[in-house]
Specification:
FAD-bd, 35% helix, FAD-dep_Monooxygenase_BioMet, FAD/NAD(P)-binding domain, 10 helices, single chain, eight-stranded mixed beta sheet, six-stranded mixed beta sheet, binds flavin-adenine dinucleotide, monooxygenase activity, oxidoreductase, globular, alpha+beta
């Protein structure tokens, strides 16, 4: 017996697809609507740490991700000088018995496709190019009308439609999305032979410049600067802006920079923060993933938190026999404080860089590792 028999999931990102897979595997009828006409995932690459990998294992796609992605167990720190002097190598270590790599890098569209494929394998009904327009709920369910004129009734609606959740707006759920003053360029590029692992350069023309391998022959490179409106740039201007910033960094950056020629594959995003205060469910509509919280990628934990939201929600729904306050209390108990540590920690790291102060980095990283090291 599960607390729900048919569920609507809105959004085919990490949070939505993971929820859909887990519920469908438990015998729930799941429909997932995604506003885009096909699987899409902007932003070149993603780092998936052990807590995200733990969920991918539960979803049944870990082995594929390990094959398709690239191990990212160590991070090398380099100076922004002419020799790209190596300053330190930080080995990521997990406690004995965890049996997962500390982190992998992966091409985002590969991950997105794998999640949707897995969803299809377990019986999720995907409706691309569709959104939910109206919601009418009573004690037992939610009536939904869709953008194609159809309608349906569901035991639960999972709103996983991202940081600017239209569902949140439609239900009048307030959220304050705070800009943090930093912006990031991200580029998918060939991986030079000299890139053995992820590398970070702090300081120089950017707050951070770095790259993370996403497979044996690809990587994603990133440059973090003061937030600017880069929205009006042409593809050629984006190439120029990225190459100009990257020219301040050397070592493997010299080769990476030369390979950046296609502006259409360059993304610019400003760092933002939000965390839904109080409850994430409004009756039988629940917000998860970026729709409930977002943070700058300074700890590379946003998608990990989205995956964990999905795992905990699905676990509770499958174990319970009804959707009630007790279920939501348990959900919030398991998610709110944990997510808050990650959001606050990510924001603090960005703020230290903006302020040019060192801060208690080991203390902060230790706290986050202790929290995210425990199963969600
Ligand atoms: C620059 C940057 C780098 C990052 N790097 C990392 C990293 O390395 N590791 C990590 O763990 N996290 C990282 N993150 C965070 C991570 O990308 C997000 O936290 C994660 O993608 C959130 O997943 P989600 O499913 O909640 O939302 P999303 O990925 O935003 O997915 C939402 C989905 O809903 C769809 N949608 C939107 N509106 C509607 C609608 N009205 N109807 C139907 N569908 C809709 C969208 O098209 C999308 O497919 C990074 C974030 C940024 C900005």
């Amino acid at each position: 017996m599960t607390a729900v028999r048919n569920v609507l999931v809105i959004g085919a990102g990490a949070a939505g697809t993971a929820t859909a897979i887990l519920l469908a595997e438990a015998g729930v009828a799941v429909t997932l609507v995604e506003i885009n006409p096909s699987v899409s995932a902007l932003g070149s690459g993603i780092t998936l740490q052990a807590n995200a990998l733990r969920v991918l294992r539960r979803l049944g796609i870990l082995d594929d991700c390990l094959v398709e992605g690239a191990d990212s167990a160590r991070v090398r720190l380099r100076a922004p000088d002419a020799d790209a002097t190596v300053l330190a190598v930080i080995p990521e270590k997990l406690p004995e018995g965890v049996n997962l790599p500390p982190a992998i890098g992966m091409y985002r569209p590969t991950l997105a496709n794998r999640l949707v494929e897995r969803g299809r394998e377990v019986g999720v009904t995907f409706r691309f190019g569709t959104t939910a327009d109206t919601f009418e709920q009573d004690a037992d369910g939610v009536d939904v009308t869709f953008s194609d004129g159809s309608h349906g009734r569901y035991d639960l609606v999972v709103a996983a439609d991202g940081v600017r959740s239209a569902t949140r707006a439609r239900l009048g759920v307030p959220a304050t999305i705070e800009p943090l003053g930093m912006g990031i360029w991200r580029v998918f590029a060939p991986r030079p032979a000299s890139v053995e692992t992820g590398e970070l350069y702090y300081g120089g023309a950017c707050y951070i410049a770095g790259y993370t391998p996403t497979s044996t022959d690809t990587l994603y490179a990133f440059l973090v600067e003061d937030a600017q409106d880069r929205s009006g740039l042409t593809a050629a201007e984006k190439v120029d802006a990225v190459r100009t910033l990257a020219a301040h960094y050397h070592g493997p950056w010299d080769e990476i920079r030369e390979s950046i020629v296609d502006g259409d594959g360059i993304h610019y995003t400003q760092f933002e923060k939000h965390l839904l205060d109080g409850r994430w469910n409004h009756g039988r509509v629940v917000f998860i993933g970026d729709a409930a919280h977002t943070c700058p990628p300074t700890l590379a934990q946003g998608a990990a938190m989205a995956f964990e939201d999905a795992l905990v929600l699905a676990e509770l729904l499958v174990a319970a026999d009804r959707v009630d306050d007790e279920l939501w209390d348990r959900f919030h108990e398991r998610r709110l404080d944990r997510v808050r540590v990650v959001v606050d920690g990510s924001v603090q790291l960005a703020q230290w860089q903006l302020d040019g102060v060192r801060g208690d980095l080991p203390g902060l990283m230790g706290l986050v590792a202790a929290v995210t090291g425990r199963p969600a």
